[in-house]
């Protein structure tokens, strides 16, 4: 029995040596031993081989289903007036009962293949990435491919997952203890420096715990103090990815439980902006607090996700204009995840936070590109909504994402009456415009 305890103690010592000296300490100082890079290159080779093997298997086994292409509706893409004219036999745009077919058609298209709900489901993959949860179209193809999948399950659940849980526990403990201790210091430049150091090192430990490989582009455009950083939103991990390269003041609602403990400890050492639920409904109060933060140019840049919800990293949805009414300089950031190594999207209506983190920690890795875009300011004669759309378009263009005008809140809320009224006004203007032209002639 003593021999078993000796072996267990020896394995534990080796485990902690690897975690502390080979992973955690290099991460704290922003160093890399290159292990993650080698791991990602091996993964790429394996996934490329698996893709070729699956394609060959589809040719040999016609019964193996082929993934459907994105989108099942061929949309005309014209204006309401043009499409309605094509549906009419006469070509006239006077009122006709047949106009109802245009709205029937649009309604059916939206039900079958709308642009909103498909942004809140996992991104479709061109080929299987050897994860069981993306195994929708997979059938047995070969023994070698099945063996590789089995080895992958062992590596992800028996090696990587315990390692990531260990690092996450250490990182969370470090964050709570470190920020709480720094919070007891008087306000000074030393307290600010220590606070930023604690936040930065903890986020680096978290990122190593996810086997994150992050490529930062155009670092000369990094957000500066007194500014506002806005980015597209895919997952709560977005915060860790950005804070891995610099510190930010977070903005959000006060939570309970573990998240509440983290928020209370973090705000002791750093001027994060947390709101009570009642304050979140008061736009004036929120805007005033954010303006006061931006006015102090010595404070960290505010990090805001204007979409207000997580989107599956294939598109950017409507930015709430409140973030652009504050004033100051906006620093746009594009975040694009590589779906081959794991699904980073958090579907909050399907998975709670714990389930999502478990899925992420049992994926292959988190591989992401971050682009810092040139700072932008509000132009003369430009309102907050127009400014928000301009920033959104720049973020979408840089990441190769679809630029959608829809509000992400539609995944939970009913369609606003203003959207219905807008379609009614368009149709009315077509009919009224034709009547005016006929009277003039």
Topology:
Blueprint lengths: L1 H27 L6 H26 L19 H8 L11 H15 L29 H41 L5 H21 L2 E6 L10 E4 L5 H7 L5 E5 L3 H13 L3 E3 L1 H4 L2 H13 L6 E3 L10 E2 L13 E8 L15 H9 L4 E7 L11 H16 L2 E2 L13 H24 L1
Parallel strand pairs: 1-8, 2-5, 2-7, 3-4, 3-5, 6-9
Antiparallel strand pairs: 7-8
Helix pairs in contact: 1-6, 5-6, 5-8
Task: Outline the structure in words.
The longest helix has 41 residues, at 143-183. The protein is α/β, with parallel strands linked by helices and 441 residues long. It has helices spanning 2-28, 35-60, 80-87, 99-113, 143-183, 189-209, 237-243, 257-269, 277-280, 283-295, 353-361, 384-399, 417-440, and strands at 212-217, 228-231, 249-253, 273-275, 302-304, 315-316, 330-337, 366-372, 402-403. The protein contains 13 helices and 9 strands. Helix 1 packs across helix 6, helix 5 (143-183) packs antiparallel against helix 6 (189-209) and helix 5 packs across helix 8 (257-269). Helix content is 51%, strand content 9%. Mean pLDDT is 78; it is low at 67-73. Strands 1-8-7-2-5-3-4 form a 7-stranded mixed sheet, with helices on both faces. Strands 6-9 form a two-stranded parallel sheet. Strand 3, helix 8 and strand 4 form a beta-alpha-beta unit.
């Amino acid at each position: 029995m003593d021999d078993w305890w000796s072996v267990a103690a020896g394995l534990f010592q080796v485990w902690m040596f690897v975690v502390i000296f080979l992973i955690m300490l290099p991460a704290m100082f922003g160093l890399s031993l290159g292990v993650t890079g080698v791991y990602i290159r091996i993964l790429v080779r394996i996934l490329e081989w698996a893709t070729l093997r699956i394609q060959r298997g589809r040719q040999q086994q016609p019964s193996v289903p082929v993934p459907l292409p994105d989108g099942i509706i061929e949309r005309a893409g014209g204006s309401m007036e043009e499409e309605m004219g094509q549906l009419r036999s006469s070509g006239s745009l006077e009122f006709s009962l047949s106009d109802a077919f245009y709205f029937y058609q649009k309604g059916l298209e939206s039900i079958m293949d709308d642009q909103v709900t498909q942004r809140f489901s996992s991104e479709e993959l061109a080929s299987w990435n050897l994860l069981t949860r993306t195994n929708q179209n997979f059938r047995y193809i070969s023994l070698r491919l099945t063996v590789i999948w089995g080895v992958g399950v062992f590596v992800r659940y028996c090696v990587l997952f315990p390692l990531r849980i260990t690092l996450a526990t250490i990182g969370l403990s470090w964050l709570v203890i470190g920020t709480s201790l720094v919070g007891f210091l008087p306000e000074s430049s030393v307290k600010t420096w220590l606070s930023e150091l604690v936040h930065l090192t903890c986020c680096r430990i978290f990122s190593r715990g996810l086997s994150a490989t992050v490529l930062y582009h155009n670092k000369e455009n990094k957000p500066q103090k007194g500014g506002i950083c806005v980015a597209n939103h895919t997952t709560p991990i977005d915060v860790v990815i950005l804070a891995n390269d610099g510190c930010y003041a977070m903005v959000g609602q006060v939570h309970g439980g573990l998240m509440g403990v983290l928020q209370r400890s973090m705000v002791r050492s750093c001027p994060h902006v947390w709101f009570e639920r009642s304050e979140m409904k008061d736009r004036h109060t929120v805007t005033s607090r954010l303006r006061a933060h931006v006015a102090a140019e010595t404070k960290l840049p505010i990090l805001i996700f204007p979409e207000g919800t997580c989107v599956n990293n294939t598109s950017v949805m409507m930015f709430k204009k409140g973030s652009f009414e504050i004033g100051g300089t906006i620093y746009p950031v594009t975040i694009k995840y590589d779906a081959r190594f794991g699904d980073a999207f958090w579907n909050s209506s399907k998975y709670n936070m714990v389930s999502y983190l478990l899925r992420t920690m049992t994926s292959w890795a988190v591989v992401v590109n971050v682009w810092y875009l040139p700072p932008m300011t509000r132009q003369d004669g430009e309102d907050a909504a127009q400014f928000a759309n301009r920033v959104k378009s720049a973020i979408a263009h840089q990441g190769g994402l679809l630029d959608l005008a829809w509000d992400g809140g539609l995944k939970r809320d009913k369609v606003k009456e203003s959207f219905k009224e807008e379609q009614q006004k368009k149709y009315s203007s077509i009919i009224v415009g034709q009547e005016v032209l006929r009277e003039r002639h």
